Amino acid sequence: MRLNGPLDKIFFRFIVLVIILTADLLSASEIENKKLTFYISSSLAVSNPQESGDEIAAFCEAGGGYYTRKSDYGVSLRYPHSCKDMMEKMIRKSGIVLSWNVSTQDAGTEYNVLVNQLKSREKLLSEYMRLIESSGFSGTLSLERELTSLVTEMESLKGRIRKMEHDFAYIYLDLDFSSEDNPEPEKKESSFPWINRIDFYDFAGSGYYDE
């Protein structure tokens, strides 16, 4: 391969660098670090849904967590693993636990891939800038577009990594309340008389809530 000028040399070194970084990425992806996300789906029988929701949400916040949903029908919480036992004890004291289902997902492989992709692009950007400065080659519109695209991709990777790290650090709990105080579904008259006579809502065991 014959190089005719500084620009050709830049892109030749650029291609070599891509090959090296790709090989590093493939070898690093073989190393798995087990990282788990925890999701708990639960239902709780309580006497006062509003009071229970406020108390559970406040307890969660005091332990460094937060809630994403709070109503008479339940709460959705995110809290650190260090509060796991205390949160479970608090919830069990607030009412009768009807269900408590825990599911986990190992996202270590996906996380490692994203981290390695970010590292490779950071090296690529650093080397790219060094080559440009050492060659004295002034920026062009196409070059600026390439750099902008690379930086945008890096920011996207950082965002996904931060999101996953947050999911690893916090347990997600979706807690539904069951109580006699919860309003019953409003029954609507049907246009079919025979359905009204048999009380279709009780027959089908369904209804709906007005938002």
Describe this structure in words.
- Strands 2-3-5-1-4 form a 5-stranded mixed sheet.
- It has helices spanning 6-28, 49-62, 84-94, 108-135, 141-169, 193-197, 200-204, and strands spanning 36-45, 66-71, 74-80, 96-106, 170-178.
- 55% of the residues lie in helices and 20% in strands.
- With 211 residues, it is α+β, with helices and mostly antiparallel strands.
- The longest helix has 29 residues, at 141-169.
Gist of the model:
This protein has helices spanning 6-28, 49-62, 84-94, 108-135, 141-169, 193-197, 200-204; strands spanning 36-45, 66-71, 74-80, 96-106, 170-178. The protein is an alpha+beta fold and 211 residues long.
Write the layout of secondary structure elements.
Blueprint: H1 6-28, E1 36-45, H2 49-62, E2 66-71, E3 74-80, H3 84-94, E4 96-106, H4 108-135, H5 141-169, E5 170-178, H6 193-197, H7 200-204
Parallel strand pairs: 1-5
Antiparallel strand pairs: 1-4, 2-3, 3-5
